[in-house]
Design goal:
- By secondary structure, the chain is mainly β.
- Helix content is 4%, strand content 55%.
- It has two helices and 20 strands.
């Protein structure tokens, strides 16, 4: 069958399994593994420092058929607006780069640092594990939907002297929302797991953020219920990260709730 015929004879559906560990952060824990169907990877992140220079990921296939994968590394940064940016990288050592995980079995994926010197600022990467089509010459039946898994595992290379730090900026209430900017002024990535708009100990609104890398800032807004907003007088903001907690109190005028 020609390449054109094959393309017409099947639909490709890509399943993205990125950042699944986030689901566990609300309970203060990290999910043990990222999983789609009968395939999973554990752990869901790797951290490197002066003492931990290598790491291991386990690829497990609980299904009844073998799965083929290719692995690649990307440098992971954020732009001025806090949006994720990735580009291919060869900074770290990892192997195997192509592997087969047999049915009901596991394979080990090893990752390590190339150099011996840590830098002043943390470096971040993602290891992309992509499923490959099965090695077969058989024609694919028409309209057969083939699922392709892709996992993106974050890798963090700690700075020589970790200094986590952040600050809240432009905290105000307007149009019924508590608005603020979080700026990372340290040299490590922060994970903003919970953001709370409060009246004393009472939670009025809650949200979650994302990774915030060194030197990056991002704006957020938490909508306050209108009836509560008009009688507040003042609101308490609390931003909880994986390394520190930020707090700020701001006055609330009734006109700011419109």
């Amino acid at each position: 069958m020609s390449a054109e015929g094959k393309n017409q004879g099947m639909k490709h559906v890509t399943t993205w399994a990125r950042w699944l560990w986030m689901a566990g952060l609300w309970a203060g824990a990290v999910v043990a593994h990222a999983q789609v169907g009968g395939f999973y990877i554990t752990p869901t992140r790797l951290d490197f420092d002066a003492r931990a220079r290598t790491g291991v990921l386990t690829l497990a296939n609980d299904g009844k058929a073998p799965l083929n994968f290719q692995v690649r590394l990307v440098r992971w940064t954020q732009d001025a607006d806090g949006k994720d940016v990735t580009e291919d990288s060869g900074d770290l050592i990892f192997f195997p780069r192509v592997t087969t995980v047999e049915a009901e079995s596991k394979r080990i994926l090893r990752v390590g640092l190339r150099g011996t010197t840590l830098e002043e600022k943390e470096k971040t990467y993602r290891l992309i594990v992509e499923e490959l089509p099965p090695a077969t010459d058989k024609a694919v039946p028409k309209l057969e939907i083939q699922m392709r898994f892709q996992f993106s595992i974050p890798l963090f290379v700690a700075p020589a002297n970790p200094l986590p730090a952040a600050e809240l900026e432009d905290v105000s209430v307007s149009k019924g929302a508590l608005r603020f900017r979080v700026r990372n002024i340290g040299n490590e990535t922060l994970l903003l797991s919970r953001m709370l708009a409060m009246a004393g100990e009472k939670v009025l609104q809650e949200g979650s953020g994302w990774y915030l890398m060194p030197g990056v800032s991002r704006e957020y807004a938490l909508q306050i219920p209108e009836d509560a907003c008009r009688t507040l007088g003042a609101a308490d903001l609390e931003v909880i990260t994986d390394k520190l907690v930020l707090k700020h109190k701001v006055e609330v005028a009734p006109a700011a709730c419109n």
